[in-house]
Amino acid sequence: MLNKYARAFFTRVLTPFAAFLLRRGVSPDAVTLVGTVGVMAGALVFFPRGEFFWGTIVITVFVFSDLVDGNMARQAGISSRWGAFLDSTLDRVADGAVFGGFALWYAGTGDNNVLCAVSIFCLASGQVVSYTKARGESIGLPVAVNGLVERAERLVISLVAAGLAGLGAFGVPGIGILLPIALWAVAVGSAVTLGQRVVTVRREAAEADAAARAGGPSDGRSGKPSDGPSGADSGRRGSEAAS
Ligand SMILES: CCCCCCCC/C=C\CCCCCCCC(=O)OC[C@H](COP(=O)(O)O[C@@H]1[C@H](O)[C@H](OP(=O)(O)O)[C@@H](O)[C@H](O)[C@H]1O)OC(=O)CCCCCCC/C=C\CCCCCCCC
Ligand SMILES: Nc1ccn([C@@H]2O[C@H](COP(=O)(O)O)[C@@H](O)[C@H]2O)c(=O)n1
Ligand SMILES: [Mg+2]
Ligand SMILES: [Mg+2]
């Protein structure tokens, strides 16, 4: 939902900054890399110590690099398959650090096994949600569903809650409860999203296999459905590279 409705707004806001970086000779790949390192540092230095406010501030500064890098690539007309791969792969690394940071806090001083497990579930389910789309697209399916809780929602829900919970350290009472609520919400939302995507891929795969059988074997040799796209790139990845 955020990807659909908020992306256009942030694209407008961030375009001048992206243009500025391009004029200074900065490459989109450098922004992707620096942004990921910044998110990792914010999550893994501050969250395990329970410093949620400062961790969230650092992460917020760097996480927007994920919107700037693609913007730069499109402005400069240098969007590439490599860039799409790097962007998506480092998204997984950044997400692992954020939810890993929460898990480390609850495994240590935060001392809550249930919330540690919920954080690990958020980490793993978020990665699998993204994987369903990547794998579905890699076997030539459109995966025409985003689902309830995509990456932007996972980040916004958990980071807004962590930032606010961090205000507890400055004397705001009763606000720490927001983080557990957010982690449970992301966990449940991710499970629902996983179900939505699996159901969609199952339907699309059945339709594609039926169409392939009606028109002959899809790989032209074995009679088995093909295990991947016929071209070097396919589906959304192809359109991204062309964007
Ligand atoms: C009193 C103060 C209290 C402190 C409160 C702190 C408040 C600030 C807290 C948090 C702000 C968090 C902002 C998080 C923004 C996230 C932006 C972002 O990176 O979104 C990424 C997303 C997806 O990008 P991609 O297309 O590159 O990624 C794809 C995606 O990962 C797919 O995964 P899937 O979705 O399928 O699971 C993969 O499949 C695919 O491979 C991959 O390519 O981008 C968007 O969705 C765009 C929309 C972004 C919307 C951002 C909304 C931000 C909302 C509020 C910001 C509040 C800012 C406050 C600043 C305060 C500063 C102090
Ligand atoms: N280093 C990069 C990063 C991204 N791209 C291109 O942008 C697309 C992602 O756009 P976002 O707005 O979500 O960042 C990605 O698929 C690539 O086409 C790039 O070329 N190089
Ligand atoms: Mg990006
Ligand atoms: Mg990204």
Topology, please?
Blueprint: H1 2-5, H2 7-23, H3 28-46, H4 52-63, H5 65-76, H6 81-107, H7 113-138, H8 151-165, H9 178-214, H10 235-242
Helix pairs in contact: 2-5, 3-4, 3-5, 3-6, 4-8, 5-6, 6-7, 7-9, 8-9
Bound molecules: ligand LH5YIG7M, ligand L45E5XJ5 and magnesium ion (2 copies).
Bound compounds, please? ligand LH5YIG7M, ligand L45E5XJ5, magnesium ion
Mean pLDDT rating: 90
What number of structural domains do the residues give?
A: 1
CATH superfamily label: CDP-alcohol phosphotransferase transmembrane (TM) domain
H/E element sequence: HHHHHHHHHH
Oligomer: single chain
Strand content: under 5%
For the report, how would you describe the main beta sheet? none
CATH hierarchy class name: Mainly Alpha
Query: How far from one another are the termini?
Result: 21 Å
Helix percent band: over 70%
Gyration radius, to the nearest Å? 20 Å
CATH topology: Four Helix Bundle (Hemerythrin (Met), subunit A)
The count of strands amounts to 0
CATH architecture: Up-down Bundle
Q: Tally the helices: what do you get?
A: 10
Low-confidence stretches: 219-224, 228-243
Description:
There is one protein chain. 73% of the residues lie in helices and 0% in strands. It is mainly alpha-helical and 243 residues long. It has a single domain, classed as Four Helix Bundle (Hemerythrin (Met), subunit A) (Up-down Bundle), CATH 1.20.120. Residues 2-3, 6-7, 10, 56-57, 60, 63, 66-67, 87-88, 91, 129-130, 133-134, 150-152, 155-156, 159-160, 163-164 line the site of ligand LH5YIG7M.
